[in-house]
Amino acid sequence: MKKWLVVSVLLNMLLIGAAGWIIYMNGGERFIKAQWRAMTSDKSFSEYYLTKTSVFEESPAAPVDKAFVGDSLTDYGSFGEYFPDERVINRGVYDDTSKLVLNRIDEVAEREPKEAYVMVGINDIMEGVKLDTYEKNLRRIVEAFDPSVTQVTLFSILPVNHDLVGNAVRDEEISEFNEIIRQVAEESGAEFIDLHSHFLDGKGQLDRQYTVDGLHLNGKGYDVWLEQMK
Questions:
Q1: Contact 154, 203 (CB under 8 A)
Q2: Taking every annotated instance into account, which residue ranges of this chain make up the domain SGNH hydrolase-type esterase (predicted)?
Q3: What is the DSSP secondary structure assignment for residue 83, as one 8-state letter?
Q4: Is the Cβ–Cβ distance between 96 and 56 less than 8 Å?
Q5: 214: left (phi over 0), alpha (psi -120 to 50) or beta
Q6: Distance between the two ends of the chain, CA-based, in angstroms?
Q7: CATH no. for 47-227
C-alpha cells in the first residue's frame, strides 16, 4: 500500500512538472490567457469592460481637452492630476485589445476632445493577434476622430521585464508592433511618441525602478510617461 502511495505521488509530481513545462514553453501567461478565452469565448466582453463602458457612456457631456485611451496601463494612470487646468478623461480599460478599444472608440470621438492619446497593443501581442489585424484596428481607431477637431497621438508599447513577468511577450514582437504604430501615425497624420526607449534598463527590459510586476507602471513610471508629453 505504501509503495503504491509513493508511486502515485511521484506520478502526480511528474504530471504537474510536465504541465508547468508546457505552460512555460508556450509563453506562460499568454498560454493561460489563450486557453481561458477559448473556454469562455461565448462571453464577448468581461463584466469589468461592460461596467466601465456603461460608466463612460453615461458620463455627462462636457468639453474635453485631453482623452487618454487604452488598456490597463492607461486605466491605472491618474492623468488628470498632471493637467489640473484642463478637463481630462481617462478611457482606459484593463485587459483591452485594439479590437475592444475600437468597439468603444465612438464614445470618445463623439466627445470631440482637443487631443486624444492612445496606447494599446500589449494585450494583442499576448493574445496572438496578427500584425495586419492589429494595424487595421489601429487605423480605424485613429480614423474615428475628426482631424479638424482632435489631434490624435499614438504612444509606443512599453517594454516588459522578463525577470518579473516571464516570457509572455517577446521583445521582437514589441518592436514589430511599435513599427506598425509608428507607420500608422506617419500615414494618418497622428503624432507618435516613443515611450519605449525611455523605460529600458541595461538589459533592454522594462527598468525595475518603474514597475512592480514587470508589465505595469508604478508612480515613478507615470512621471516618466508624462514627461515625454512636454
A1: no
A2: 68-223
A3: -
A4: no
A5: left
A6: 72
A7: 3.40.50.1110
Please give the DSSP secondary-structure letter assigned to residue 194: -
Amino acid type, 2: K
**Torsion from C-alpha of 11, 12, 13, 18, nearest 10 degrees:** 90
pTM (2 d.p.): 0.82
Locate all alpha helices (DSSP H) within 88-228, ordered by sequence: 98-109, 122-126, 131-143, 162-165, 171-188, 219-227
Cβ–Cβ < 8 Å for 153, 203: no
Q: How many whole angstroms separate alpha carbon 224 and alpha carbon 136?
A: 29
Give tens-digit pLDDT for 8-20: 555 656 666 555 5
Q: Model confidence over 175-216: pLDDT tens digits?
A: 999 999 999 999 999 999 999 999 999 999 999 999 999 999
Identify which of 74, 37, 29 has the alpha carbon closest to the alpha carbon of residue 216.
Answer: 74
Phi and psi, residue 217, nearest 5° = -95, 150
Q: Which of 91, 153, 101, 154 is nearest to 123 (CA)?
A: 101
Q: CA–CA separation, 134 vs 91, rounded Å?
A: 19
Rounded Cα distance, 160 and 158, in Å: 7
Residues in the chain: 230
Give CA–CA dist 56/90, Å, rounded. Answer: 9
| 153's grid cell | 497621438
